[in-house]
Amino acid sequence: MFENSEWIKSKKDYGDVCPVFKFDFEIEKPVESAVLNVTAMGVYYANLNNSRIGDFYMAPGWTAYDKRHQYQSYDIKNMIHKSNSLEITVGKGWYRGRICEDRINNGWGGVSAIIVQIDIVFSDGTKKEIISDENWKTARSPIKFSEIYDGEIYDATSTEYDWEAVGLFSFRKDLLIPQEGETVSEHEVFLPEKMIITPKGEKVIDFGQNITGYVEFETEAKQGDIIEYSHAEVLDADGNFYTENLRTAKAKIKYICRDGRQKYKPSFTFMGFRYIRIDLAPKSVDINDFKAIVVHSDIKRTGFFECSNSKVCKLFSNIIWSQKGNFFDIPTDCPQRDERLGWTGDAQFFVKTAAYNYDVKKFFAKWLHDLKAEQRFDGSVPSTVPNVLGNSSCGRPGWSDAAVICPWQIYLHYGDKKILYEQLDSMVKWVEYMRRESDGYLWLNSKHFGDWLGLDNEDGSYKGASDYILISCAFFAYSTGLLVKALKALGKPYAEYEELYNNIVKAINQRFTEFNTQTECVLMLCFDIAEDKKKIADKLAKLVKENGNKLTTGFVGTPYILSALSENGYIELAYSLLLQEEFPSWLFSVNMGATTIWEHWDGKNENGQFWSAKMNSFNHYAYGAIGAWLYDTVAGIKIDEDNPGFEKVILAPMPDKRLEWAEASVITKYGTIRSKWYYDKNDKIHYEFDIPVSARLIIDGNEKYLDAGKHFF
Ligand code: BGC
């Protein structure tokens, strides 16, 4: 692909203005097929004869551009006329825009450029190739400024294009790869729920749901009128518009009107928001002119959960919304502040829940290919993929382990060994990195995010009190254990790693005998390290009870704490944590009006005061990792590791009377698995299962084999 095409750019420096590239061509004969292959340094959209081609927002997506750069292929047969005009507009995007506070360009290009190849086959069998070369034209587009964090400035009065010849840009083409991931496009639309005049006198529109996407408006205006609005996730304690947690992200739109009726939505930016503040608008503009459009990767929903407790249902809905909000071509930590990065830890903590909720096979495959590409020669894995933080961020326990945990989880959910084959080298390299850094079996590492945002350290600390060394060793054991499983699944030799795993586990049990935090206990239990599980489960239960049935865990402990309890004899206590409403708890944020998962347990406290503005996202899926427990323990739809991809299923629901009923369903390639239980008037429990595959049913420790079909107990 692109053998004959050249990268083209504007000869002049257009500064912040987004360039548009144009090529006119004639088609004389009937067309059998026509495909546009295109990509940009930056983000682009293409119009043919004034109609948009495809619906991929922020194409070509975000990859480790210096190693892998996606191009897209669009079928344009039905859009082709006799005389054609192709226009491609390019924004800075991740390639050229500022990423992560004020890091500019990340070592990627400083130029907006495109490369194009159109393949046309005529009905008479002849072919034509249209390429990007010096015959294209370029001009300044009406998009005067566009940055992911800062928003967009659009000048609708600038309708005359000053076309000039393009320049050729000599750059590698060998990095170009066909589209691998899901595309990103528009989904739900939210109309304004209400207009608020805040105590400060700000005009604020509430869309009722924290989302990722942008606002579209259609309105009547006069030439030169200006419409300006800002985005926010929350209002402060006094009810004023609050943007401090966006840090340096301006998240602002400025639109300069022409005469008459006009419609606008941004082209190259996105925001995480529930509210917009109208900063400037002519009188003719009405709140009903605005609507909020949800934008995310085109992943298909596969998982559903409901129960009798409306707050738990809301929690589940918040998990879904945080997944939508942060599955934006890559798995991001958050969609609103000057970050929005592919944090590896967040992705691995959430991957299991993500795969229950949606079909994320393709989405993760693409991102994992980037992870592999970004992995350093010594095997260490960056904290963010693509790696924008540099080498110093590589090799962090719990974060870098995404290299092993994510492929393994994707394999378990979809039963396709391809991901294991593709990632195996990377998995081995990561384990070998830890082995080299360790004293053989113990990884005495304190280069760490710790139990990120755990609550058991002194006030204001970002890192929980859990022992860094224990966390390092626990992940060393866990990833090595998963590598053994992956090697077994692939029919490859595994004895060396099994021995390593056994030795790590032995060494951890020898070195660590006391566990002082919930997260330390959780890791020992859920990573199957503890020799005396009962002792540690009792300790965990004690720590939770002493804390008033509340958790203190951060990113590392939270995803597994309920399983650590439910699988070790403390199901009732697990439910107590799930149903806890006081801070810190999942339902505390629900009671505080959350519509997505918060980054911090008290993103907003009882008095409406915020936690540190420096690290306070209201749309962070990490703590939403609890979703998997709703599926696999409350409803009991568990993956059978010996029959991955739900070829067979384990049904092991664990009900609790504080819920009257619960039901979940999971769409798999074999059909939909449904599990439901409810208590009748006499407090008798009933189970209903509808399964397309056979199952092992485990209830109260009793096992039974079930054929595919409907079952009632
Ligand atoms: C991100 C997190 C991430 C963490 C690691 C934060 O800034 O938002 O989600 O995992 O840094 O320290």
Explain the overall architecture:
- The chain is α+β, with helices and mostly antiparallel strands.
- It has 4 domains: 7-179, Jelly Rolls, CATH 2.60.120.260; 185-297, Jelly Rolls (Sandwich); 300-634, Glycosyltransferase (Alpha/alpha barrel), CATH 1.50.10.10; 649-712, Maltose phosphorylase, domain 3 (Sandwich), CATH 2.60.420.
- It contains 14 helices and 39 strands.
- Strands 1, 2, 3, 4, 5, 6, 7, 10, 11, 12, 15 and 16 form a 12-stranded mixed beta sheet that branches. Strands 13, 14, 17, 18, 19, 20, 23, 24, 25 and 26 form a 10-stranded mixed beta sheet that branches. Strands 28-34-35-36-39 form a 5-stranded antiparallel beta sheet.
- Strand 37 and strand 38 form a beta hairpin.
- It binds beta-D-glucopyranose.
DSSP helical segment count: 14
**Overall CATH class of the largest domain:** Mainly Alpha
CATH architecture of the largest domain: Alpha/alpha barrel
How widely separated are the two ends? 59 Å
Helix-strand makeup class: alpha+beta
Whole-number radius of gyration? 27 Å
Shape: globular
**Number of spatially distinct domains:** 4
- Distinct ligands: beta-D-glucopyranose
Helical percentage: 10-25%
User: What is CATH's topology name of the largest domain?
Assistant: Glycosyltransferase
Strand percentage lies at 25-35%
The mean pLDDT is 96
List how many beta strands DSSP finds: 39
Instruction: List unreliable stretches of 5+ residues.
Output: none
Describe the main β-sheet briefly: 12 strands, mixed
